[in-house]
Amino acid sequence: MQIYKWQATNRQGKKAKGEMEAISDSIVVMNLRKQGFSDIKVKKKPKEIEINLPFLKGRVPDKDVVVFTRQFATMINAGLPIIQCLEIQSTQQENKEFKKILTAVKEDVEKGETLADALRKHPTVFDPLYCNMVEAGETGGALDIILGRLAFFMEKNMKLKKKVKGALVYPASVVCVAIIVIAIMMIFVIPSFEKMFTGFGAELPLLTQIIVNISNFMRSNALLIVAVIFISIVALKKIYQKNDKAHHFFDSMFLKMPIFGVLLRKVAVAKFTRTLGTMISSGVPILTSLEIVARTAGNVVIEKAIMATRESISQGKTIAEPLMESGIFPPMVTQMIAVGETTGALDQMLTKIADFYDDEVDAAVSAITSLIEPLLMVFLGGILGTMIVGMYLPIFKMGEVVH
Protein backbone atom coordinates (compact mmCIF):
# COMPACT_ATOMS: atom_id res chain seq x y z
CA MET A 1 0.00 0.00 0.00
CA GLN A 2 1.15 3.53 -0.81
CA ILE A 3 -0.06 6.93 0.36
CA TYR A 4 -1.01 9.33 -2.45
CA LYS A 5 -1.62 13.09 -2.32
CA TRP A 6 -4.43 14.34 -4.53
CA GLN A 7 -5.97 17.59 -5.77
CA ALA A 8 -9.38 17.81 -7.47
CA THR A 9 -12.52 19.88 -8.06
CA ASN A 10 -15.70 18.88 -6.24
CA ARG A 11 -19.30 19.03 -7.50
CA GLN A 12 -19.66 22.63 -6.33
CA GLY A 13 -16.64 23.67 -8.42
CA LYS A 14 -14.40 24.23 -5.40
CA LYS A 15 -10.80 23.02 -5.14
CA ALA A 16 -10.14 20.18 -2.69
CA LYS A 17 -7.08 18.18 -1.69
CA GLY A 18 -6.14 15.33 0.62
CA GLU A 19 -4.35 12.03 1.08
CA MET A 20 -5.46 8.46 0.35
CA GLU A 21 -3.88 5.06 0.90
CA ALA A 22 -4.21 2.73 -2.09
CA ILE A 23 -2.43 0.08 -4.17
CA SER A 24 -1.96 2.43 -7.17
CA ASP A 25 -2.77 5.96 -8.34
CA SER A 26 -5.49 4.62 -10.67
CA ILE A 27 -7.40 3.29 -7.63
CA VAL A 28 -7.23 6.76 -6.07
CA VAL A 29 -8.60 8.37 -9.26
CA MET A 30 -11.40 5.80 -9.46
CA ASN A 31 -12.42 6.33 -5.82
CA LEU A 32 -12.41 10.12 -6.21
CA ARG A 33 -14.54 9.96 -9.40
CA LYS A 34 -17.09 7.85 -7.52
CA GLN A 35 -17.29 10.67 -4.97
CA GLY A 36 -18.02 13.21 -7.75
CA PHE A 37 -14.57 14.82 -8.11
CA SER A 38 -13.13 16.00 -11.45
CA ASP A 39 -9.79 17.49 -12.72
CA ILE A 40 -8.02 14.97 -10.51
CA LYS A 41 -4.24 15.15 -10.00
CA VAL A 42 -2.52 12.38 -8.03
CA LYS A 43 1.09 11.88 -6.94
CA LYS A 44 2.91 9.67 -4.48
CA LYS A 45 3.52 11.17 -1.08
CA PRO A 46 7.32 11.45 -0.55
CA LYS A 47 8.78 9.42 2.28
CA GLU A 48 9.46 11.50 5.37
CA ILE A 49 12.86 11.53 7.05
CA GLU A 50 12.53 10.10 10.53
CA ILE A 51 14.95 10.68 13.38
CA ASN A 52 14.60 7.88 15.92
CA LEU A 53 15.95 8.91 19.32
CA PRO A 54 15.98 6.01 21.83
CA PHE A 55 14.64 8.12 24.71
CA LEU A 56 11.74 9.48 22.63
CA LYS A 57 10.80 6.29 20.75
CA GLY A 58 7.39 4.91 21.61
CA ARG A 59 6.20 7.98 23.47
CA VAL A 60 2.69 9.18 22.76
CA PRO A 61 1.46 12.09 24.92
CA ASP A 62 -1.74 11.56 26.92
CA LYS A 63 -3.18 14.67 25.26
CA ASP A 64 -2.96 13.02 21.80
CA VAL A 65 -4.79 9.92 23.07
CA VAL A 66 -7.53 12.09 24.63
CA VAL A 67 -8.05 14.04 21.37
CA PHE A 68 -8.13 10.77 19.40
CA THR A 69 -10.69 9.26 21.79
CA ARG A 70 -12.93 12.33 21.72
CA GLN A 71 -12.88 12.54 17.90
CA PHE A 72 -13.35 8.77 17.57
CA ALA A 73 -16.46 8.96 19.77
CA THR A 74 -17.90 11.78 17.61
CA MET A 75 -17.28 9.85 14.38
CA ILE A 76 -18.83 6.62 15.71
CA ASN A 77 -21.84 8.61 16.95
CA ALA A 78 -22.20 10.10 13.44
CA GLY A 79 -22.49 6.59 11.99
CA LEU A 80 -19.06 6.19 10.37
CA PRO A 81 -17.62 2.62 10.25
CA ILE A 82 -14.77 1.87 12.67
CA ILE A 83 -12.23 1.22 9.89
CA GLN A 84 -13.02 4.55 8.20
CA CYS A 85 -12.73 6.35 11.54
CA LEU A 86 -9.31 4.80 12.16
CA GLU A 87 -8.17 5.65 8.62
CA ILE A 88 -9.18 9.31 9.04
CA GLN A 89 -7.53 9.50 12.46
CA SER A 90 -4.27 7.92 11.30
CA THR A 91 -4.10 10.17 8.22
CA GLN A 92 -4.50 13.41 10.19
CA GLN A 93 -2.27 12.31 13.09
CA GLU A 94 0.89 14.45 13.40
CA ASN A 95 2.68 12.28 15.97
CA LYS A 96 4.67 9.76 13.87
CA GLU A 97 4.63 6.99 16.49
CA PHE A 98 0.90 7.34 17.15
CA LYS A 99 0.25 7.38 13.39
CA LYS A 100 2.02 4.00 13.04
CA ILE A 101 0.04 2.54 15.94
CA LEU A 102 -3.33 3.70 14.57
CA THR A 103 -2.44 2.32 11.12
CA ALA A 104 -1.55 -1.03 12.70
CA VAL A 105 -4.83 -1.03 14.68
CA LYS A 106 -6.80 -0.30 11.50
CA GLU A 107 -5.08 -3.17 9.64
CA ASP A 108 -5.82 -5.60 12.51
CA VAL A 109 -9.50 -4.59 12.53
CA GLU A 110 -9.63 -5.09 8.75
CA LYS A 111 -8.33 -8.64 9.31
CA GLY A 112 -11.33 -9.38 11.52
CA GLU A 113 -10.02 -8.65 15.03
CA THR A 114 -12.13 -6.70 17.49
CA LEU A 115 -11.11 -3.12 18.19
CA ALA A 116 -10.29 -4.00 21.82
CA ASP A 117 -7.96 -6.86 20.79
CA ALA A 118 -6.24 -4.63 18.22
CA LEU A 119 -5.69 -1.93 20.87
CA ARG A 120 -4.30 -4.48 23.37
CA LYS A 121 -1.29 -5.00 21.09
CA HIS A 122 -0.13 -1.48 22.03
CA PRO A 123 -0.12 -1.44 25.87
CA THR A 124 2.20 1.58 26.11
CA VAL A 125 -0.56 3.76 24.59
CA PHE A 126 -3.79 1.89 25.39
CA ASP A 127 -3.73 0.54 28.96
CA PRO A 128 -5.94 -2.34 30.26
CA LEU A 129 -8.54 0.14 31.52
CA TYR A 130 -8.91 1.65 28.03
CA CYS A 131 -9.06 -1.74 26.28
CA ASN A 132 -11.57 -3.26 28.71
CA MET A 133 -13.90 -0.28 28.42
CA VAL A 134 -13.71 -0.43 24.61
CA GLU A 135 -14.49 -4.15 24.79
CA ALA A 136 -17.53 -3.41 26.99
CA GLY A 137 -18.63 -0.74 24.50
CA GLU A 138 -18.30 -3.12 21.54
CA THR A 139 -20.18 -5.89 23.36
CA GLY A 140 -22.99 -3.58 24.52
CA GLY A 141 -23.29 -1.70 21.22
CA ALA A 142 -22.55 1.63 22.90
CA LEU A 143 -18.97 2.27 21.75
CA ASP A 144 -19.54 6.00 21.15
CA ILE A 145 -20.89 6.50 24.70
CA ILE A 146 -18.00 4.50 26.23
CA LEU A 147 -15.39 6.44 24.22
CA GLY A 148 -16.99 9.71 25.38
CA ARG A 149 -16.74 8.53 29.01
CA LEU A 150 -13.15 7.45 28.43
CA ALA A 151 -12.21 10.86 27.03
CA PHE A 152 -13.89 12.61 29.99
CA PHE A 153 -12.13 10.28 32.45
CA MET A 154 -8.71 10.84 30.83
CA GLU A 155 -9.19 14.62 30.84
CA LYS A 156 -10.01 14.52 34.56
CA ASN A 157 -7.01 12.26 35.18
CA MET A 158 -4.69 14.63 33.30
CA LYS A 159 -5.93 17.57 35.39
CA LEU A 160 -5.32 15.58 38.57
CA LYS A 161 -1.74 14.75 37.51
CA LYS A 162 -1.16 18.41 36.62
CA LYS A 163 -2.28 19.50 40.09
CA VAL A 164 0.05 17.05 41.83
CA LYS A 165 2.98 18.00 39.59
CA GLY A 166 2.24 21.67 40.31
CA ALA A 167 2.51 20.97 44.04
CA LEU A 168 5.79 19.05 43.69
CA VAL A 169 7.59 20.92 40.89
CA TYR A 170 7.76 24.31 42.65
CA PRO A 171 9.59 23.21 45.82
CA ALA A 172 11.78 20.78 43.84
CA SER A 173 12.84 23.51 41.37
CA VAL A 174 13.57 26.00 44.20
CA VAL A 175 15.70 23.42 46.05
CA CYS A 176 17.59 22.56 42.81
CA VAL A 177 18.34 26.23 42.13
CA ALA A 178 19.46 26.63 45.75
CA ILE A 179 21.83 23.64 45.47
CA ILE A 180 23.33 25.07 42.26
CA VAL A 181 23.81 28.53 43.86
CA ILE A 182 25.40 27.02 47.00
CA ALA A 183 27.69 24.80 44.88
CA ILE A 184 28.83 27.81 42.80
CA MET A 185 29.56 29.79 45.98
CA MET A 186 31.44 26.88 47.55
CA ILE A 187 33.54 26.09 44.46
CA PHE A 188 34.21 29.58 43.03
CA VAL A 189 33.38 32.33 45.59
CA ILE A 190 34.63 30.92 48.93
CA PRO A 191 38.17 30.17 47.57
CA SER A 192 38.57 33.89 46.74
CA PHE A 193 37.78 34.78 50.35
CA GLU A 194 40.11 32.02 51.58
CA LYS A 195 43.06 33.49 49.66
CA MET A 196 42.31 36.88 51.17
CA PHE A 197 42.09 35.43 54.71
CA THR A 198 45.36 33.49 54.29
CA GLY A 199 47.16 36.80 53.76
CA PHE A 200 45.97 38.03 57.18
CA GLY A 201 47.99 35.34 58.96
CA ALA A 202 45.46 35.17 61.80
CA GLU A 203 43.40 32.17 62.93
CA LEU A 204 39.97 32.00 61.28
CA PRO A 205 36.75 31.94 63.34
CA LEU A 206 35.20 28.45 63.77
CA LEU A 207 32.23 29.11 61.45
CA THR A 208 34.49 30.49 58.70
CA GLN A 209 36.90 27.55 59.05
CA ILE A 210 34.03 25.03 58.72
CA ILE A 211 32.75 26.74 55.53
CA VAL A 212 36.29 26.86 54.07
CA ASN A 213 36.84 23.15 54.87
CA ILE A 214 33.54 22.22 53.18
CA SER A 215 34.54 24.32 50.15
CA ASN A 216 37.95 22.59 49.91
CA PHE A 217 36.34 19.17 50.21
CA MET A 218 33.80 19.96 47.45
CA ARG A 219 36.51 21.29 45.11
CA SER A 220 38.78 18.30 45.70
CA ASN A 221 36.03 15.68 45.37
CA ALA A 222 33.51 17.26 42.97
CA LEU A 223 33.45 14.28 40.58
CA LEU A 224 33.25 11.80 43.47
CA ILE A 225 30.29 13.68 45.01
CA VAL A 226 28.42 13.73 41.67
CA ALA A 227 29.17 10.02 41.13
CA VAL A 228 27.99 9.08 44.65
CA ILE A 229 24.73 11.06 44.21
CA PHE A 230 24.08 9.49 40.78
CA ILE A 231 24.86 5.92 41.95
CA SER A 232 22.71 6.41 45.08
CA ILE A 233 19.70 7.56 43.01
CA VAL A 234 20.08 4.64 40.57
CA ALA A 235 20.55 2.13 43.43
CA LEU A 236 17.50 3.42 45.33
CA LYS A 237 15.42 3.26 42.15
CA LYS A 238 16.50 -0.35 41.51
CA ILE A 239 15.79 -1.36 45.12
CA TYR A 240 12.39 0.36 44.96
CA GLN A 241 11.47 -1.45 41.74
CA LYS A 242 12.89 -4.92 42.45
CA ASN A 243 12.56 -5.41 46.23
CA ASP A 244 8.93 -5.89 47.33
CA LYS A 245 9.63 -5.10 51.00
CA ALA A 246 11.49 -1.89 50.12
CA HIS A 247 8.73 -0.96 47.65
CA HIS A 248 6.09 -1.43 50.36
CA PHE A 249 8.18 0.47 52.93
CA PHE A 250 8.73 3.53 50.71
CA ASP A 251 5.11 3.64 49.49
CA SER A 252 3.85 3.36 53.07
CA MET A 253 6.26 6.13 54.11
CA PHE A 254 5.04 8.40 51.29
CA LEU A 255 1.44 8.07 52.52
CA LYS A 256 2.51 8.92 56.11
CA MET A 257 4.55 12.04 55.22
CA PRO A 258 3.39 15.10 57.24
CA ILE A 259 2.52 17.42 54.34
CA PHE A 260 2.58 15.48 51.06
CA GLY A 261 1.10 12.30 52.58
CA VAL A 262 -2.31 13.99 52.94
CA LEU A 263 -2.19 15.11 49.31
CA LEU A 264 -1.18 11.64 48.07
CA ARG A 265 -4.06 10.01 50.00
CA LYS A 266 -6.59 12.42 48.51
CA VAL A 267 -5.19 11.87 45.01
CA ALA A 268 -5.40 8.09 45.56
CA VAL A 269 -9.07 8.31 46.65
CA ALA A 270 -9.97 10.58 43.70
CA LYS A 271 -8.22 8.29 41.20
CA PHE A 272 -9.68 5.07 42.70
CA THR A 273 -13.28 6.33 42.77
CA ARG A 274 -13.11 8.00 39.33
CA THR A 275 -11.60 4.93 37.65
CA LEU A 276 -13.87 2.38 39.33
CA GLY A 277 -17.00 4.51 38.76
CA THR A 278 -16.20 4.98 35.06
CA MET A 279 -15.57 1.26 34.51
CA ILE A 280 -18.69 0.07 36.38
CA SER A 281 -20.92 2.57 34.54
CA SER A 282 -19.45 1.31 31.24
CA GLY A 283 -20.42 -2.29 31.97
CA VAL A 284 -17.00 -3.72 32.90
CA PRO A 285 -17.39 -6.54 35.49
CA ILE A 286 -16.64 -5.47 39.08
CA LEU A 287 -13.81 -7.99 39.64
CA THR A 288 -12.09 -7.01 36.38
CA SER A 289 -12.54 -3.33 37.25
CA LEU A 290 -10.96 -3.73 40.69
CA GLU A 291 -8.01 -5.66 39.25
CA ILE A 292 -7.33 -2.90 36.70
CA VAL A 293 -7.83 -0.15 39.30
CA ALA A 294 -5.34 -1.92 41.61
CA ARG A 295 -2.72 -2.20 38.85
CA THR A 296 -3.03 1.50 37.99
CA ALA A 297 -3.02 2.71 41.63
CA GLY A 298 0.65 3.76 41.53
CA ASN A 299 1.19 2.79 45.20
CA VAL A 300 1.73 -0.79 46.34
CA VAL A 301 0.00 -0.22 49.71
CA ILE A 302 -3.17 1.01 47.98
CA GLU A 303 -2.83 -1.75 45.36
CA LYS A 304 -2.81 -4.45 48.10
CA ALA A 305 -5.84 -2.87 49.80
CA ILE A 306 -7.81 -2.90 46.52
CA MET A 307 -6.76 -6.49 45.72
CA ALA A 308 -7.87 -7.53 49.22
CA THR A 309 -11.22 -5.88 48.45
CA ARG A 310 -11.42 -7.84 45.19
CA GLU A 311 -10.73 -11.09 47.06
CA SER A 312 -13.45 -10.29 49.62
CA ILE A 313 -16.00 -9.53 46.87
CA SER A 314 -15.22 -12.85 45.17
CA GLN A 315 -16.17 -14.48 48.49
CA GLY A 316 -19.51 -12.67 48.58
CA LYS A 317 -18.70 -9.63 50.74
CA THR A 318 -19.39 -5.96 49.96
CA ILE A 319 -16.86 -3.43 48.66
CA ALA A 320 -17.16 -1.09 51.67
CA GLU A 321 -16.15 -3.61 54.38
CA PRO A 322 -12.59 -4.45 53.21
CA LEU A 323 -11.94 -0.82 52.19
CA MET A 324 -12.85 0.26 55.71
CA GLU A 325 -10.57 -2.41 57.23
CA SER A 326 -7.60 -1.25 55.12
CA GLY A 327 -7.42 2.07 57.01
CA ILE A 328 -6.36 3.93 53.86
CA PHE A 329 -9.74 5.19 52.73
CA PRO A 330 -11.53 7.78 54.95
CA PRO A 331 -14.75 6.70 56.77
CA MET A 332 -16.82 9.15 54.69
CA VAL A 333 -15.70 7.42 51.47
CA THR A 334 -16.43 3.88 52.69
CA GLN A 335 -19.83 4.93 54.07
CA MET A 336 -20.82 6.60 50.78
CA ILE A 337 -19.71 3.49 48.88
CA ALA A 338 -21.82 1.35 51.24
CA VAL A 339 -24.85 3.58 50.52
CA GLY A 340 -24.16 3.30 46.77
CA GLU A 341 -24.06 -0.51 46.99
CA THR A 342 -27.31 -0.61 48.99
CA THR A 343 -29.21 1.70 46.62
CA GLY A 344 -27.79 0.14 43.43
CA ALA A 345 -26.22 3.44 42.34
CA LEU A 346 -22.57 2.65 43.10
CA ASP A 347 -21.20 4.19 39.88
CA GLN A 348 -22.99 7.50 40.54
CA MET A 349 -21.84 7.56 44.16
CA LEU A 350 -18.23 6.88 43.14
CA THR A 351 -18.38 9.76 40.62
CA LYS A 352 -19.69 12.11 43.34
CA ILE A 353 -16.86 11.09 45.67
CA ALA A 354 -14.33 11.64 42.85
CA ASP A 355 -15.71 15.15 42.15
CA PHE A 356 -15.55 15.98 45.87
CA TYR A 357 -11.94 14.77 46.18
CA ASP A 358 -10.89 16.64 43.04
CA ASP A 359 -11.86 19.81 44.91
CA GLU A 360 -10.06 18.49 48.01
CA VAL A 361 -6.88 18.01 45.96
CA ASP A 362 -7.19 21.63 44.74
CA ALA A 363 -7.48 22.84 48.35
CA ALA A 364 -4.56 20.62 49.47
CA VAL A 365 -2.30 21.88 46.66
CA SER A 366 -3.10 25.52 47.56
CA ALA A 367 -2.44 24.82 51.25
CA ILE A 368 0.87 23.06 50.53
CA THR A 369 2.05 25.84 48.20
CA SER A 370 1.23 28.57 50.74
CA LEU A 371 2.95 26.57 53.53
CA ILE A 372 6.07 25.58 51.61
CA GLU A 373 6.88 29.04 50.24
CA PRO A 374 7.80 30.63 53.62
CA LEU A 375 9.53 27.42 54.78
CA LEU A 376 11.72 27.38 51.67
CA MET A 377 12.54 31.06 52.06
CA VAL A 378 13.57 30.55 55.70
CA PHE A 379 15.62 27.46 54.78
CA LEU A 380 17.44 29.10 51.86
CA GLY A 381 17.86 32.40 53.69
CA GLY A 382 19.34 30.56 56.67
CA ILE A 383 21.91 28.67 54.59
CA LEU A 384 22.97 31.64 52.44
CA GLY A 385 22.93 34.00 55.44
CA THR A 386 25.17 31.62 57.44
CA MET A 387 27.66 31.46 54.53
CA ILE A 388 27.75 35.26 54.16
CA VAL A 389 28.17 35.84 57.92
CA GLY A 390 30.90 33.14 58.01
CA MET A 391 32.83 34.92 55.25
CA TYR A 392 32.57 38.37 56.82
CA LEU A 393 33.40 37.32 60.42
CA PRO A 394 37.20 37.60 59.86
CA ILE A 395 36.72 41.10 58.39
CA PHE A 396 34.68 42.16 61.45
CA LYS A 397 37.41 40.76 63.74
CA MET A 398 40.07 42.70 61.82
CA GLY A 399 38.05 45.90 62.37
CA GLU A 400 37.99 45.21 66.12
CA VAL A 401 41.77 44.68 66.17
CA VAL A 402 42.40 47.94 64.28
CA HIS A 403 40.29 49.88 66.83
Keyword list:
403 residues; mainly alpha; Receptor-associated Protein; 3 domains; 3-stranded antiparallel sheet; 3 strands; 74% helix; 6% strand; flat
Overview of this protein structure:
The protein has 403 residues and is mainly alpha-helical. It folds into 3 domains: 2-44; 62-155, Receptor-associated Protein (Up-down Bundle); 161-403, Receptor-associated Protein (Up-down Bundle), CATH 1.20.81.30. The chain contains 16 helices and 3 strands. It has helices spanning 25-34, 62-77, 82-92, 96-110, 115-120, 128-140, 143-198, 206-220, 222-242, 244-256, 260-281, 286-295, 300-314, 320-326, 331-343, 346-402; strands at 2-9, 15-22, 38-44. The protein has a 3-stranded antiparallel sheet, with helices on one face. Helix 10 (244-256) packs across helix 11 (260-281) and helix 12 (286-295) runs antiparallel to helix 13 (300-314). The longest helix is centred in the C-terminal third of the chain and has 57 residues, at 346-402. It is flat, with a radius of gyration of 30 Å. Mean pLDDT is 82; it is low at 48-57.
Sequence-ordered SSE layout with sheet pairings:
Elements: E1 2-9, E2 15-22, H1 25-34, E3 38-44, H2 62-77, H3 82-92, H4 96-110, H5 115-120, H6 128-140, H7 143-198, H8 206-220, H9 222-242, H10 244-256, H11 260-281, H12 286-295, H13 300-314, H14 320-326, H15 331-343, H16 346-402
Helix pairs in contact: 2-3, 2-7, 3-4, 6-7, 7-8, 7-11, 7-16, 8-16, 9-10, 10-11, 11-12, 11-16, 12-13, 13-14, 14-15, 15-16
